[in-house]
Design goal:
single chain; Zn_ribbon_RPB9; coiled coil; elongated; DNA-directed RNA polymerase; transcription; 3 strands; alpha+beta
Length: 89
């Protein structure tokens, strides 16, 4: 990772005229990437892809559940949590 010498913002890889440069998204400062730095970014990106996980988003529901439905929802949640833990080992 490299930070902008002008304002300290994290610089991001960017293609410019067929050449990869690091560019500050805040002020626009640019520096050309060497092959060694490009390879480091490539390796980090591969690791990041390998560590991705799905994310569930809960929606607010106003419906009321009876006791049996609540128990079923709890059971499903516990199963999902246990499955996620097993995958992480």
């Amino acid at each position: 990772m490299r930070f902008c010498p002008r304002d300290g913002t994290l610089m991001v890889p960017y293609k410019k005229d067929g050449v990869t440069v690091l560019k500050c998204p805040k002020c626009g400062y640019e520096v050309k990437l060497s092959e060694k730095v490009k390879e480091a970014y490539r390796q980090k990106a591969e690791v990041a892809e390998d560590k991705k996980r799905g994310v569930m988003i809960a929606e607010e529901r106003r419906a009321e559940y009876d006791q049996e439905e609540m128990e079923e929802l709890r059971r499903q949640l516990l199963e999902n949590l246990q499955e996620t833990e097993r995958e992480g080992e």
